[in-house]
Design goal:
By secondary structure, the protein is an alpha/beta fold. It is built from 19 helices and seven strands.
């Protein structure tokens, strides 16, 4: 909060469960990466942070990794732990991150802490009102005031704490006096280890985009996370992405490699996509793409049909209404309309793909007539789609 008690930002922390008060047995880097991946994928950024700042705790391992570059620099404040010991390499890294637009905050600041050497790069300095006696806190606040930083009183839990800090002219406040921490949870799906490793190898070998795209087409979790990331504020884009090849092109191989590495180090088997669900989604996607080709639709329309088919079961996967899922995906209005089966020229393609899963296939003849599709190309596309998915070995 600022001096007028207006909300200026959030501090984001990782907790393994609703009841946990700390990160638990996780190593520092693992906890830090969980915060990053949750912010980028599972929680999203726009609805959680809005136009506010995100203060994210980072240790030395996270600072020296390349994962931070995946975040929207202008909106993120890197909260440095007091125990961080500056080295020439670390100072150079902090200078670079500062130049990229990241704000630097000193957490639990004390002039006796090893991290005090980094004060000249800081924009925010957090002073723990409970760690020091009143006179020591007043002295520390006065000393820091001579630096061009925003002073934030942290662990403010009582009216007395708040009154003291306000009288000392502190610029901002954080603590239970204003609000208790809130635990946000989300259902998480993880991509296949095999597919993630395959993509990393392809990128290392500078493979063709089509080869890279082909792997995304085999994994619903990977493709969902890719489009969510590339269309998020983290990617800094002003346009929505409607195909996997476009997403790869916009991100570039270096940033894509960095992002895949982050997925790999935070992945586990708990959120693995059910094989039958993945198979159905990919069959729909390929079938719709082939139908588009059979009707001589442009390539971009065929690619759109694939993505729509792939994402048509996200509501089942996340066990929530499609409208809720779409709130967290920056897809085009057309994609959203079709996925909710609202009127659009592409909607009958999705309806036809779903109708084929009914053993009676009652609605298939009518939908084929709507699309101007004769039995032969319909049957051929259906068989080819089923064969293609079998070849993938899902």
């Amino acid at each position: 909060m600022n001096r007028n008690q207006q909300l200026i930002g959030y501090e984001l922390l990782f907790r393994p469960s609703l009841e946990a008060e700390g990160a638990g047995p996780l190593a520092a880097l693992q906890a830090d990466t969980q915060v990053l991946v949750n912010t980028l994928h599972n929680m999203g950024t726009s609805w959680l942070i809005g136009n506010k700042l995100a203060f994210i705790n980072v240790g030395e391992a996270m600072l020296t990794s390349e994962f931070l570059e995946l975040l929207p620099a202008r909106r993120v404040i890197l909260d440095l732990m007091p125990e961080i010991t500056p080295s020439n390499e670390l100072i150079a890294r902090i200078k670079y991150l500062h130049a990229q637009g990241f704000g630097i905050a000193m957490d639990g600041f004390s002039f006796n802490a090893p991290s005090a050497q980094l004060l000249e790069y800081a924009k925010y300095v957090k002073l723990d009102v409970q760690k020091h006696g009143t006179s020591d806190f007043q002295m520390l606040a006065a000393q820091v005031r001579s630096y061009p930083v925003i002073r934030i009183a942290e662990k403010v839990e009582t009216h007395e704490h708040f009154h003291l800090c306000r009288e000392l002219g502190m610029d901002g406040f954080q603590g239970y006096y204003f609000a208790k921490p809130e635990t946000l949870s989300a259902k998480v799906i993880h991509p296949s280890f095999t597919h993630t490793l395959e993509l990393l190898n392809l990128l290392r070998m500078d493979a063709e985009i089509k080869e890279v795209e082909a792997v995304f087409k085999r994994d619903i979790a990977l493709s969902y996370k890719l489009l969510r990331f590339v269309n998020s504020a983290a990617a800094g884009l002003n346009t929505t992405i409607s195909s996997f090849s476009h997403a790869v092109t916009v991100l570039g191989y270096k940033r894509l490699y960095r992002w895949l590495t982050l997925l790999l180090v935070t992945a586990n088997e708990d959120g693995k996509t059910p094989p039958a669900l993945q198979k159905t989604a990919i069959t729909r996607a390929r079938f719709m793409e082939l139908l588009g080709s059979a009707l001589n639709l442009p390539n971009d329309a065929c690619e759109s049909l694939f993505v729509i088919g792939m994402f048509s079961l996200l509501d089942v996967l996340f066990d929530m209404p499609m409208t809720t899922v779409l709130e967290h995906l920056h897809l085009s209005d057309q994609f959203k309309q079709v996925l909710q089966e609202q009127p659009d020229r592409l909607t009958p393609f999705l309806q036809l793909a779903k109708a084929c899963e009914d053993k009676e296939m009652r609605d298939v003849p009518q939908l084929c007539r709507e699309l101007g599709l004769s039995p032969e190309p319909f049957n051929q596309a259906h068989v080819e789609a089923l064969a293609w998915v079998e070849e993938l070995g899902l």
